[in-house]
Amino acid sequence: QVQLVESGGGLVQAGGSLRLSCAASGRAFRSYAMGWFRQAPGKEREFVSAISRSGGTTYSADSMKGRFTISRDNGKNTVYLQMSSLKPEDTAVYYCAADEAIYYDSTSTKIQDYVYWGQGTQVTVSS
Length: 127
What we know:
The structure is a single chain. This protein is an all-beta fold. The chain has strands at 2-7, 10-13, 18-26, 33-39, 46-51, 58-60, 68-73, 78-83, 92-99, 114-117, 121-126. The strands form two sheets. Strands 2, 4, 5, 6, 9, 10 and 11 form a seven-stranded mixed beta sheet that branches. Strands 1-3-8-7 form a four-stranded antiparallel beta sheet, with no helix packed on it. It is globular, with a radius of gyration of 13 Å.
C-alpha cells in the first residue's frame, strides 16, 4: 500500500505559477513511476504529466509541455508538479498517482496503469 497526499493547490491569477507536491508513505517510493492527472467539473480525468521510477524519463501532455514540469525527490518520497503560465482552463482538481512500473525508466499516460491515488488538490486560475 502507498498513501499519497497532495498539497500546494490554491487560487492564482492567469499567468501565475504554482507548485504542487505529493508526499508518499508506505512501500518504497522508488518502486513506482508517478503521474499527475486532473479533472475539471463535468469533464473526465485527464493525464497531465508522468515521471519514471528513476526520474530520468518524463512526459507531459501536449497542452502542458513547456508550462508544467514534473520532478521527484526519492530521498523525500515526494513528486512535484511545477506549473507556470497558468490559464483559466487549467482549473481543476489535480491528483497524483502511483504506477507499479516494471521498467525503471518507463512512464504511462493511462489512468488504468495507476494503482494508488491521492485525494486531490484544487487549483483555480482566475482570468
